[in-house]
Please model this.
Amino acid sequence: MRSLVLALVLTLVGSQHLNYQPDFSENKVYTFDYESTVLSGLPEKGLGRAGIRIRSKVEISGIGPKLCLIRIHSIEAAEYNGVWPTSSFSRSLKLAQVLTGQLSNPIKFEYSHGHVGNLMAPDSVSDDGLNIYRGVLNVLELSIKKMQHSYSLQEAGIEGICNTTYAIQEKKRANLVYVTKSKDLNSCEEKVQMVTGSAYTQPCQTCQQRNKNSRATATYNYKIKYTRNEAVITQADVEEIHQFSPFNEITGGNAIVEARQKLALTDVQKHMAEVPPKEFQNRGSLRYQFGSELLQLPVHLFRIKDVESQIEESLQELVETTSEKLPSDAPAKALKLLHLFRAANEENYESVWKQFSSRPVYRRYILDIIPAVASHRALRFLRHKMEKQELTNWEAAQMVLVALHSSPPTQDVMEEATLIVKKHCPRSPTILGKFCYLSYASLCHKQCSSSDSCSECLQLLHGFAGEALSKANTEEISLALKALGNVGHPASIKHIKKFLPVYAASASDLPLKVHATAVIALKNIGKKDPKMVQAITLEIFLNHKIHPRLRMLAAVVLLETKPGLPILMTLADAVLKEPSMQVASFIYSHLRALGRSTAPDLQVTASACRMAIRLLSPKFDRSGYQFSKVFRFSVFDEFLMSGLAAKYLVLNNAGSLIPTMAMSQLRTHFLGRVADPLEVGITIEGLQEMFAKGYSPDRDWETDYNFKEILKKLSDWKAFSSDKPFASGYLKMFGQELFFGGLDKNAIQNALQVWYGPDEKIPSIKRIISSLQSGVGRQWTKALLSSEIRRIVPTCAGFPTETSFYYSSITKLAGNMQAQITPSPKSDFRLTELLNANIRLRSKMSLSMAKEMTFVMGINTHMIQAGLEARTKMNAHVPVNVVAAVQMKEKNIKIEIPPCKDETGVITVRSKTFAVTRNIGDLPANKMTPVLLPEAVPDIMKMSFDSNSAPGEIDNIRDRQSAEDVSSGDSLSFGHSSSQKEPFVQSMCSNASTFGFQACIERRSIHAAFIKNVPFYYLVGEHALTVTLKPVYTGAPIEKIQVTIQAGDQAPTKMVRLVTFEDPAAQVSSSKAVLKRVKKILDNAYDQGTRKSRSSSSSASSTSGSAESTTSSPSSSDSDNRASQGDTQINLRTRQSKVKEKKFYPFGDSSGSSSSKSSSSSSSSSSSSSKSSSSSGGGSSSKSSSSSKSSSKSSSSSKDRSSKSSSSSKDSSSKSSSSSSSSSNTGSSKSSSSKASGMKHKAKKQSKTTSFPQASAAEGERSVHEQKHKTQSSSSSSRSTSSGISSSSESGVVSHRHSKYDTQAGLKHDKSQFNSHSSYDTSAQREYHLPKVYQLRFKSAQVHWHPGQKMASSSSSSSSESGSSNSSSSGSRSSHSRGSSSSRRSHHSNQGENSEHRSRRSHKSRGVSSDHSRGSGQTRERNFLGDIIPPGITIVAQAVRSDNRNEGYQATTYVRSDAAKVDVQLVVVQLAETNWKACADAVILPLKAQARLRWGKECRDYRIAAMATTGQMARKPAVQLKVQWGNLPSWIKKTSTALMRYVPGAALVLGFSEAHQRNPSHEFIVRAAATSPRTIDTVIKAPGVTLYYQALRMPFTLPLGPSPTYEAQDITVWNIFLKIVSQIAQEDQSTCEVSEGDFKTFDHMSHTYSFNKSCNLIVAQDCSQHPKFIITTRKVDSWSFSREVHINTTSANITICPAANSSLLVACNEEPVLSHSGVSEYEKDNVKIYKNGTTVIVEAPTHGLKNVAFDGVILKVTVASWMRGKTCGVCGNNDREKHNELLMPNHKLAHSCSAFVHSWALLEETCTGGCKLQRSYVKLDRNPTIDGEESTCYSVDPVLKCRKGCTPIEKASVKVGFHCFPKDAAVSLLEWQRSSDKKSASEDAVESVDADIECTCTGDCS
Model:
């Protein structure tokens, strides 16, 4: 036992001497074979890759204790560029020579126990060569722990200090240790990487947790041979993978960079290594050091020998290349020049500048390229040029902007930038000053983000802000605050607080725009210190004393910090108590918008916002658009891990429709980062007022009329604080403000001065016109490196791998312009005089753009480049060569354009992905292989199965591929169609051969998605898009293209071709065609009868829908031939009069339509399979095939009770289907057949009865239209009117049910209903269910206009919705004839079905008609207006040919406006004699408008019709727009089908709901019903989708009320739009009413209080700093109700007072006006006074008074819209806010209405006048207990009391605030009145006291 223990102890002691940690013994040389490989590409086989492989011998010698020498020799280099894995490496001797030169010198390194220490190398060893050494030594870095076999630690390496996991296995018998080391290169404490170009973006931590766009890992496998004394690495294999995923790393696809190393020990020799006799310097540790790759652009590789001469050559080449057109490689040449400038020094800069600065084109390129160098040398060059004043301010501003934004924040750069700002940047708000400070602040932001040492630049900007505040210079303060906002450092908070009113007392004197700028400056700071910013902004928001706009901006900044639930609930609670509706609406909409966000970084905030919204009432959402709101649209795709959000903020101040401030912001999520690419803000203050008044120089408001004397009579009157009128805006990109500017009042007035024409000369305008007359030629070129984003990380091999993106562009604008103006402008001309001159302008310009975007992933050093390279080139060239002649007096414009002679590429976009290898040693041998070669992709379908393959062959599968697989090229990619490998090519040309050219668009694409269907692979491959203009052979050469536009009386003279229409009747021989032709002839005969006779009769028949339909019902004429399978009976009765002529109506409704199946004597109607025909004599015959048939005959002697007509009719017979067999019991057709109304005319008078094929052009009774769908039938009924609006039956899945609003109307007809069926009770019960809004019927309103009358009668026709689920569309048309009877009755049937039961109801309605000397506009055929009137406008586009042949197009417009309607027609014809035409026509009626567009042969091939009608939905005013179409071109169908896919999603975002209904396939309906003056219910019915929105808010009040009386002047084509604009403008105006006992403010708040005493009361006044009007009123006598009104303006004093005869006397400036009976109007100095009956109206719009109306009792004041928030007085401040209505002159809110009215009383200084009151402070008559002490209280506001010597005879109670003192320390009332503290004293109590309102005085009143 003892021996066993002893043996174990000896074994343990012996094992402790074993050395696992590798080392290199002194005087030994270890020789290794080394191989390193770096490959870049996509992971799939068959795609291109690029990379390098280096093989060499590595000798490591121990030269001292812990010191070794490493030498690399026998280097072999090979490049890989081809398809992986079939291609092979190709040796590159020249690259091997380059690497040998880099690695020729050995280096020393410290090495102990497996750890590499410092590296020492001669200065001749470059950083790139030293990094290759580091790659070898990185393999030797090991941290082996003796007692552990698996452990993790932080280990230093070439990539930094990263998490490393070890696994150790030992084979003691062989003295071997196997070590596996794995590194997570994403988890490093000091990760070695260089990222540039993304400083203005923020990381999205939540996005990166879900998805890593960049991942890297490395695995090391070691084989260590150990002995008792040493351990040696005999073999090491390293594999490292870098993965880049632009989208979702799992489903989005990725690119990889693989690096491998192999180190194998081959020999160990004992001898002393030779150390070179060179001085070795310490060059750092194993950590990678960046070298040449920072200056090397990855898109170029070339030798730099003489940099200055190369710059000159490259610059000249760039200028010569871009002198004419911009080639696609121009941006690449600019990047090469940039690369050379980066390699140059300041001497080279100066030499190039001296040589080329005097040449404009060269100078521009130099000034564009040098700032993009982004180094301290470029900034020093810029500073020297600014010192020597060799740059203009604009050139300096551009260079400073680009240079400071592009430069990295190194110490040298910061020093140069600071010198530029201190010495050469003016602090004045010039363009150079703004660019300087804002760009310097952005550079400071980058420095503060990358390091903590940014105190110097912060100190400079803080000092600037302090100096600006001390000088109280508003412009400098704004610039300093915006600069601090760009920096976004928390250290600036205490400086920004000095400008906020809450934190600094002096800040309250600053303008509001300064406060707003200070709040916005906190936005970027909130990204770094959200807690502090949240505290500040929340405090500002909760302070109600601060301006609402400032509070809203504070809320914007607060919500940008992504606050948590507690803060958001605090915000929501504050909104519940918020007095300002502007603020409440803004916060509610902002919270709701954020709650809908799907971005990962906003999920917590969005959830909290949704919780906060639940606290708030939906009433905030119903606020109109005049209130502040936030609109936000966002989308985030998890599949792409990318998102986009757009936000639009509207900040309104006083409820005007024009917002005061608007901001728009765009935000993107991509690559795990968040960026704000664009933000634009606009602020407008007072502009509306200025433009309303036009150009009017300011006048001294105090000298004209002494308003101050009036305002002194008020108690502590204060003007509203308002800034001067201005318009300002700012532009931010990526969160950094680039520029801001504004137009102050002077600049705006100068602009208005130019337009309105001053008396003095305008040298600038004159100079421009003179130069245009002499000719102007300019050329402007701009080269810009817009983006340079790089991420560089080292690989284990010592080579850097780079992922970078470059975006460069060159833009060129060149051209010349010359103008001839007749007569030539004189020296004192006005700008408006040009409108009467003849101008001939010749212009030849071209806009060219060349852009290049390059994505690179792989190795990039100055020696070698190998990797993926994706290039996208975009080239655009837009030539403009135009000669235009404008003759304004003659209303003529002529434009001449040269013909297209050569093929011109307008836009060319090409994108291709390559595998690229370049090496500096052999530049001509660079290789670019397309990544995607479809024929090289292996085809799994053609791979053979080998059952005898050895297992070892699996390892070699990637190095083997059969020849047949490679050569076949015919492949099916992973089960998909083989065609996907083939390029996608799409070419489309729009041939305009008439003008000799064609526009072609060609798309060509082939991508790698057929290998793996992921988004990234769609980008890999080759894509091209070209848009070209090509000449077309036209026979004779085209000299020019000429466009002539002529308006007015001369329009007919420019017509080249007379517009005529031919009858399109075709010559056919078949019997059916002949029959149709006979029907058509008779139809035309009826049309002639219509024109010859204006008498009307009533016949009921159903007509089919034609292709020319403009009615509101869909047509189904295609089913006519299929309608009846049995015998078809057509009854054609000839008329007594012969058909003398045949007339074709090209703009007729139906008679001229070839697609119409209706005849003049009979018309067929078909919903699915029914046909009916009626005779012209009033008899009708219809036949329908159905399961049950009933027939009846009806004559004038019929016993039908419901048809009470005094007229007689002929026999009518019908066969129809009914839902119940009992429908034929009465012997009459009832609802199934049409009732013919009587006609009082006689046949012998030959007054013909006309049957109109269009229901919209018919009058009389409504016929019942039966429809048959297989075995179901449903009929739709409508109420017929004299106007003849037809009904539309819409079928849907949901059965139609009547609304409860229609139930009462339906019950009124119960008495007139007859033969009710047993199913009626069920139907009646169903009516009481409230239907959905999309199921409501629309009833169109009709206006009957009579030439001799002003009365309008209206009736309605209903559009019912069928409940049949089988009907795709059902349409009915009724043809009516007019009778002479003044009133008729007709039957109506509404028949609906569902799966359970059927119901049938009959309604009776009345139609009113009267005899007319001329037919209604709706009933007349719409003739071609060109036969009646000349065209109003003629446009001729003509190709002028050498053979003088007319080629081109002519468009003529005809407008006819009369008392009944407005008819507009547009006809486009070809100048060549063809029958192709395009016709557009529109008819505008009082309550209806319709339009059509038709084109093709005689305008007959294609059509689209639209009709807008007013009416009712559920007894609510409504409007309907119905669009119908027939045959359409295929491209329109495809486009509309594609767009309809996005409609449901877009509607959902907009708040619409979707219903399941089956709608007609050729019909689109939009209905809007006004549910309140501010809300509408909207229904949209499109093919395949029904959408509805209930209570949609409108921006203005709808004009609801009774229909107005329509006269001739009511309907013109021009005033309709003016009425809409006027309606919106009137909505933005406000009216106040003051009467005897009450008043209603501008904000519609009514108060009851009578102050009808002898003191003047301010009704309304302009409360701005410069008042423009004051309106007061007072009683004439205390015993009467008569009042007088005083209107004081800056130009007139107007008094209106009652006279003895109850009339009103008016005096202007104390002179009577309107005193004579014949004078009814007076106008002077922009003030107009006139009478309307007994009412006197005063208008002074330039003073802000729209009108003041006074009838002796009621005073109405209407102010202009730009007076929002600027008024005060009894009428309020006009800001649409309810909480601040009782605002007193001192801007305090009154505690009662009486106190409010008393505060606006104008008191007199003496008793001589009628007002004997004064304002006095009062003492509370009791001593309340305040804070536990008995107190004495005095009022803080004065109360009306009688003057001394007067006694009150009437009192009123008012509520006032009191300030209290302890009773023992109280001051006296007299002291309180004299004290100045009472204005700012707090209110301790609110009590009611008595105020005197009427006094009686003795003689000693004072």
Q: What stands out?
A: The CA atoms of residues 224 and 233 lie 4 Å apart.
